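discrete fold record:
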Amino acid sequence: MGTTLAEKVWTDHLVRKGSDGAPDLLYIDLMLMHEVTSPQAFEGLRLAGRKPRHIDQLIATEDHNTPTVDIDRPNPDETSALQLSTLEKNCKEFGVRLCPLGDADQGVVHAFAPVLGLTQPGMTIVCGDSHTSTHGAFGAMALGIGTSEVEHVMATQTLSLKPFKTMAINIEGELPKGVTAKDIILAIIAKIGTGGGQGHVIEYRGEAIRKLSMDARMTICNMSIEAVPEPA
């Protein structure tokens, strides 16, 4: 019997198979970081006297609390300014590449990685952000994780996960004029429910999906998290 793309990626990254219901241990190819969910993770490393295991597989950007105008001026929001300065300090201390505000490579965390060519098919990608599923558009297994898991990945380049079920969604035919990728995913969520994807990897298939641009596929995978799947 054949295996799904998600199953192939899982097998390729399996470090240790869990026993007696314990999670599997998977190797993580790339972790994306930003100013909101990384401070406590860096502090955890600092307190434990640890260093990132593979700094070349970590990259950070400033994107959640950045101003959209007057970026050359001090951030007027004190909390946001503190988060940004903390990220800059942490990345410098631990040697993590940072794309700060004003840098040519800086951007929204789930857009800048594909633009830079960091997101590739068959990779495992994590980030402390729920919409990490966006990278699934490129054939990667990508999921959002919590801050304690961000610390764990920095320290070990691995993550403990229980295997997901696979949900295949086929979208066939031609999209009518004016119907977009957002309409597709909203219709899917309306059908399966806001918790319909829980515990699953969603794989999108069919003629309509194959004809979508990469931007449109990113939209579908980005919004898939509203149905609470893991990767998409």
Observations:
- Residues 164-232 form a domain with the Aconitase; Domain 2 fold (CATH 3.40.1060.10).
